[in-house]
Amino acid sequence: MLPDLELAVRLQGLDNRVSELTREISSLPKHITEIEKKLESHTRKLEADRAALAANQKDRKQCETDIQQQEQKIAKLRDQMLGAKTNDQYRAFQHEIEFCEKEIHRAEDRILELMAESEPLDRNVKAAELSLKQEKTQVEGEKQQAMSRTAADRQALDQIRQERAAIVARLNPGVYRQYERIRKNRHNVAIAEAIDGRCSACHIAMRLQFFQDLKRGDQVMYCESCSRMLYYNPPATIEDLTGESAPAVQG
After folding, report:
1. N or C, where is the chain less crowded by C-beta within 10 Å?
2. Helix or strand or coil: residue 174?
3. Strand order in the sheet with 198-199
């Protein structure tokens, strides 16, 4: 293979890795944003459950206060009944006492309802608090991992760019210009291997003479279909694989 093609193949590998690292670096903040949004949603749900539980407890306290006020009122009415001078006055006090007692019963029933409602609310709050605590720990762990991964990716990216610059310095300027032009127009893939007489990028079969010329490897050639640079790797022989000569065929 021509030295310029070997360098171009290495360059393509580095550019592929640059694209992978760049995508990963850009995706990590999005990932963090997504898990933080999920955490915020769970936090809002917990706050709503806490607010509902607090409102329940406030209503119960108000009912208890109402009961206490009605009991105090009944005590005063009974004291006043002792001084009633007529049956009508006595019955009026009695009616007021009955009304207060009904209010007490109504408040007591409401307290029972609120107590039944508070039990699932209390369970939800406790479960959500525990779940949120665990989720916050997980999110912080993922954030740290993302930050570490981003730092490692940036370091790897710097090293690859240095290696790329060294290869570009050795590459024929004309070949490099062609490489960059093709890469820009062909989704960052500027060079492809010829396999079984086809371009591995566009999969179009090559003319037989073209493929034979490519096999000679004495010039930079471009796919007649997709215009990418082409290179050919001859199949490995037994000597290449084992380092030993192939056994002689017995006649």
Report:
1. C
2. helix
3. 198-199, 191-195, 229-231, 221-222
The second-level CATH assignment, the architecture, of 3-7+11-170 is Orthogonal Bundle (1.10)
Say if residues 1 and 233 touch (Cβ distance below 8 Å): yes
pLDDT at 238: 55
C-alpha to C-alpha distance for 203 and 215, rounded to whole angstroms:
17
Residues of the chain below pLDDT 70: 236-251
In the block, residue with structure tokens 């279909």: 225
Strand ranges inside the chain, DSSP E:
191-195, 198-199, 221-222, 229-231
Tokens of 31: 């990932």
The CATH 1.10.287.1490 portion of the chain extends over 3-7+11-170
In 3-state terms, what secondary structure has residue 79?
helix
| Amino acid, res. 16 | N
pLDDT at position 69 is 95
pTM score above 0.85: no
Tokens standing for residue 230: 């082409």
Tokens of 193: 């291997």
Q: List, for residues 60-108, the tens digit of each pLDDT value.
A: 999 999 999 999 999 999 999 888 889 999 999 899 999 999 999 999 9
Residue 138, token pair as written in the block: 């997980």
